[in-house]
Design a protein that fits this description.
This protein is of the alpha+beta class. Helices cover about 30% and strands about 25% of the residues. It is built from 5 helices and 7 strands. Helix 2 runs antiparallel to helix 3 and helix 3 packs across helix 4.
Length: about 180
């Protein structure tokens, strides 16, 4: 699978029986790995238990379904917050930004915006971490780039520069490309 990360939104109906999920009721969520990417299932616990499946989930967790809340329209923000920046970077799917994506995900986890639901080590040795947005229910599959401590300060400064608006995505991606080139 070529994707290094991915976002899957929470469903609002049971993936198996197609009945609406009930606000604040238990829900079973699972990711299935397919050749096209990850497929997300959100189901009533009874449906999940009784469903016949000829596949094993990539990741599975129990949670509580929260119905979406309509938010009042706010004035557009000039600077993105960390969650918006993470969504934008994941959508871009730029491998040069894998360190920034990972640090943003960890930041959001520590801020209790994201919760880590699972960790999978794949046959090729890469680690994928499954995060879920606590409020919106979106699932992010993030590549763990196994950052070394000596590289962390540089990546953190890139994240701060992006969040503060002092650098663009293109400038940070160029820095990452230069850092990845072998020194002569």
């Amino acid at each position: 699978m070529s994707q290094e990360w991915n976002i899957k939104s929470r469903g609002h109906v049971c993936s198996l029986c197609q009945k609406p999920l009930v606000d604040r009721a238990p829900v079973v969520s699972a990711l299935r790995e397919t050749p096209e990417g990850y497929e997300r299932f959100d189901c009533h616990p009874e449906c999940w238990k009784t469903a016949e499946r000829d596949w094993e989930p990539f990741s599975q967790w129990d949670g509580v379904y929260f119905a979406p809340v309509k938010e009042e329209k706010k004035e557009p923000l000039k600077k993105e917050d960390a969650g918006e920046l993470l969504r934008q970077l994941v959508t871009l799917d730029d491998p040069a930004m894998k360190n920034v994506v990972y640090v943003l995900a960890v930041m959001l986890e520590r801020s209790k915006i994201l919760v880590e639901r699972d960790t999978k080590e794949l046959e090729d040795g890469t680690i994928r971490r499954v995060y879920e947005d606590r409020k919106q229910g979106d699932t992010f599959v993030i590549l763990d780039p196994r950052l070394r401590l000596e590289n962390l300060a540089e990546v953190q400064s890139q994240v701060v520069a992006l969040l503060s608006g002092t650098k663009t995505l293109g400038e940070v991606a160029k820095e990452e490309d230069c850092a990845a080139e072998p020194q002569q």
